[in-house]
User: Fold this.
Amino acid sequence: MHIHILGICGTFMGGVAALAREAGHKVTGCDAGVYPPMSDQLRALGIELIEGFDAQQLALKPDVFVIGNVVSRVRLDDGTPKFPLMEAILDAGLPYTSGPQWLAEQVLQGRHVLAVAGTHGKTTTTSMLAWVLEATGQAPGFLVGGVPLNFDVSARLGSGKGFVIEADEYDTAFFDKRSKFVHYRPRTAVLNNLEFDHADIFDDLAAIERQFHHLLRTVPARGRVVVNATEDSLQRVLAQGCWSELARFGAGGEWQADGSDDAFEVLRAGRSVGRVEWALSGRHNQMNALAAIAAADHLGVPPAEAAAALASFRNVRRRMELRGTVERDGGAITVYDDFAHHPTAISTTLDGLRRQLDGKGAQADRILAVFEPRSNTMKLGAMAAQLPWSLEQADLAFCHTAGLGWDAAAALAPMGARAQVADAIAPLVDQVVAAARAGDHVVCMSNGGFGGVHEKLLAGLRKAS
Assistant:
């Protein structure tokens, strides 16, 4: 089969392309501003990439066009379509489908699908679960919205019966407004947490809860729903109907943790069934571990083996990823990259780092938070009022304000002199470089490339040292 993917450079669609190529299909694709790292990964797989969405691509004559949710029917100011290739496909009556639908029909059929859903921690928990299965001989397939460092690829078919997938609640395509995850038909579904996000497509939290309920409708009676017991929103989802085995984790649940973030007993119904000792920080990762262990148990992996496997889990790129250090005045300034882009994720990331520093007796070390409100929800300003709360653990905060339709300085005013704003990367870097001192930990947070701020910061810090 020859498939041509529209919007191929996104993490999800790039993963679909890699899986299709591994399965022996001919794969081509297009995108606007074909960009690395995905473009480099795809070209290395022998996938032809085309810049833009021109209608001439009909000449490729694929068996089916796979449409990413970047594609729409929108018209430009002059009335011409933004995606002429899509218009040509529709006019010619050619076959097309969405990425999730193609994946469900061509890859997931006959597999034991383990789907990880939630507002936060999907990528990390999916990666943990895939690694647990790999380390215990299960040879899983997976599709992750990031690059797990244990695998160094975001997707593979695998040879075992299990397939682990990051289950996103965002909509599927312009012609299918259901959440992506309803296509996956999991036997094991993880509900990590749930709060309001994606203000561009959901009116309120109740609308997202409804989509999570739709996911539960697809889990068979012999399936398992692994659910965070501490989340009221998820209890409301369950109250709408659940027909599968429940495995609750966290306080009040069957699966709990006892100990510090980096060394803890895994308890099942009050009895120790394993121990996790690893380099990760933060209570959120402790919860992610419980979810992964409970999900792997459904596939037959003993909890003790799953817990032991997590000792060698190396996390995911852009999850508190160390980008470099610069020596200054006898000490080091450390720069990290993190994907946090929602107030709760920002708070969780900074709290985890503070706990880690305190545990090492480094209470005097400062945390400098450098962030851009880049997601659609944040750009709309729907959560601007939560920013001061999310940055409580930061000694200083620096916000990149380009493209915002709301006043970030006013939103951050409760932080007083601890917060600064800049409408371009260069002055933002200058602000951080001027403020940084030996012992500081600079955490750059964005769900995009952030204008290469990490390397620019490191260069600026070296020059000033």
About this structure: Residues 120 and 354 are 19 Å apart (CA to CA). The chain has a mean pLDDT of 91. The first strand starts at residue 2 and ends at 6. The two ends are 57 Å apart (CA to CA).
